[in-house]
Amino acid sequence: MSKEVPLQSTLFSNELIDTRTAKQKKKAKAAEAPRQVEMFSQRQLAVFGANGRPRLPISPKTRIELAIQDARSQEEIERQLQREIEENTYPMPWAANQAASEPQEAE
């Protein structure tokens, strides 16, 4: 059910114009928009005496740490470490010459 918009006619052309302010138009548009129905009433939501941020009962001596778990196998960890070492190691000049002069094996 739509509400009627108050229109006024102009003095010379008798054309109907909406003369409401922008604030009034915005308020009318907001009133026509659908509203979300609350699932629970405010009375059901308010629980007096309840703590919104409960704390775990931990003694002051307890130390909480983040445990880092690596899902890789020991061989994968060793291969990754070997790759990192090879990337960060500068090749020796005589080792590069030997590798270039040696024939590569055909597989």
> What about the largest sheet?
2 strands, antiparallel
Could you spell the SSE succession in H and E letters? EEHHHH
Q: What is the count of helical runs?
A: 4
Number of strands: 2
Could you list the spans in which at least 5 consecutive residues all have pLDDT below 50?
none
Q: β content, as a range?
A: 5-15%
Helix content: 25-40%
Kindly, what is the distance between the CA atoms of the first and last residues, rounded to a whole number of angstroms?
83 Å
How would you concisely characterize the structure shown here?
36% of the residues lie in helices and 6% in strands. It has 4 helices and 2 strands; from the N terminus they run ββαααα.
Written account of the structure:
This protein is mainly alpha-helical and 107 residues long. 36% of the residues lie in helices and 6% in strands. The chain is built from four helices and two strands; from the N terminus they run ββαααα. A two-stranded antiparallel ribbon has the order 1-2. It starts with 6 loop residues before the first strand and ends in a 6-residue tail after the last helix. The mean pLDDT is 82.
List keywords for this structure.
single chain, mainly alpha, two-stranded antiparallel ribbon, elongated, 6% strand, 36% helix, 107 residues
